[in-house]
């Protein structure tokens, strides 16, 4: 049974709801439902490596093609029952084998902890294992590298987002902003609730747990996926009975591309633990449907990993070695090995594919699998390449994070090359196929600073240490230097200690301020500087070392000005004054993340960080496709977004972003917040709903999440459209030719001015607005739809039916649920 999601973060741009029902499933269905009915049955427990794959389900009848329900939705492809009856979509899991309880039997916290203890079999109790789960656990413990700052999309049967394995830092489970499962879409039921439903759902939750699950048990045991710091997006492409189709997968891939930046952290990785067997007869069809989406993702540096398949034993002679999409050149195939590193007997294989353990792995499953008891913390053991793929996908997230931390450009090519270069090559003695097991600990090791430990009395951040000497400037060498500049003593009133202090690997120095400007030059290499501000007012300007905005950085304070040269990484920590910071971008694709207390501007080869700075000005003018994330303060904030300029003001805090192509604003810190969004010179589409507002056109995209009141203005030209959606009946509408306004009795409002086309919806029903509005009269709506969609039929009953479909689609596309 589904539960309502708390928030819809993004909706798909296209929904294609008719393809041949190909019995696509990574969960069990048809003949596969027998093991699910008795999850204690383990067909492969004794000899998983040599288990034959179970026959794939039969092809199901083709559904009827339906016309598009709105002009901006792609017409479903009408496919006849022709050459593709031999294209069943095979699951990439062998069988569900629960270690305790049968369905419907009561489970207790004690028995669940007993099963939880078994889940530690995924890792070596000694901590010395070389599985990806073992390596990730050691990495997380030693370096805190856990995938934080990224989102992985799981295209599968959905995710049971109420499972404790997906709880946030506060121990809360749910769906939407603030939770671990931050968003998604159900393509099977065409709604915003991608829950892993009964009777056949379980597979997506199991896969998601291996990728990013994390829970501590009552007795202190831990279940841990490879990248538990990463967020999750659930894209459901199987219905309750386990049926799916290729069109849902195509739409889910397109959804990832369109919504990659719709959440707090970008979608960087996709996992597909599913696939189909391709032959000469059906390859062109499958490639024509999905290959273009896979290429778009790869070229946008979103990596896709897919299960190699479990049909090695009975693979057809004329079939490809790997399931599709694992066989795509834009996808990384993942096979299964046993605990000794040998290829599993069921695993399909190809030269140079990645592998991970895929036999009898414990992971999370929805409550319905082992029986409802109100304690959503169930686990079971599964085998298959389905279990291997999410581990490798999550491992790539750790590699990307490490590369970004090291200032190395993380592209699809560079990440995969790093994973391959540090992997261990093996050869299967039976088939001669080579395969690669990952050494993630080697992949994330980019060396350490060559700076020596400071001598006693010169520890970093210790302003009381005795300076070794006074200097009037500083010049570094060619190595990677790490320096600290401390201004905290300059307003102390002590004449002997009111000078800035500079610390490097050799000691601490007192900077003489006799000259008007002091130069600190780090020289060549990747250099780092940390600055501690005074209680006074500092002004800091930071520039990258290369590109159109390259130049010296400066910091001005009560005692003078210091010029900073050659620093790729700078951190400034304010001391409590009215500090102001100005940051400049590089020529590449840069990202700004700013809030009341912290800000970060990063790109290839540089990173600037700020703490406790009240005034921030960031210029993204050097080039690239730049993104800004602005978060509100605890005060009543005013957000303004325009092409090339955005600002957020609350209390004494001010954030300004210039030249960013994409701006995402979040009101989550409290206060009564107002957003003002403006159009571009192109044709803009504006959507305003209860929790999220979005405006976009070519080269311009902005969204505001969580603001109590939203005002949108179209004044720069183009043919602009606005849609306003409300579900609160306690409000009033006011409309005219150029104004559409809804005012709530609680003081909130949604206002749109100057748009050429306006549509309004209240409780999913159309509200007449302006001259271009749609009437509530079905026949009038149908007539409008016919004029806009010439491919639609003209039968009167069809028009009314299509009107209902039109309204339903708009509801799904533009609704945000609280």
Account of the 3D structure:
This protein is α/β, with parallel strands linked by helices and 818 residues long. It has 4 domains: 30-406, Rossmann fold (3-Layer(aba) Sandwich), CATH 3.40.50.200; 448-624, no CATH class; 636-648 and 664-773, no CATH class; 777-818. The chain contains 12 helices and 48 strands. It has a 17-stranded mixed sheet, with helices on one face. It has a 15-stranded mixed sheet with strand order 18-22-26-25-24-28-32-36-35-34-38-42-46-45-44, with no helix packed on it. It has a 9-stranded mixed sheet with strand order 4-7-3-8-10-11-12-16-15, sandwiched between helices. Helix 8 crosses helix 9. The longest helix is centred in the middle third of the chain and has 21 residues, at 385-405. It is globular and about 80 Å long. It starts with 32 loop residues before the first helix and ends with a helix. The relative contact order is 0.09. The model is unreliable at 1-88, 96-120, 448-465, 771-803 and 813-818 (pLDDT under 50). This is Serine protease, subtilisin family. GO terms for molecular function: peptidase activity. Residues 446-475 are annotated as: Disordered.
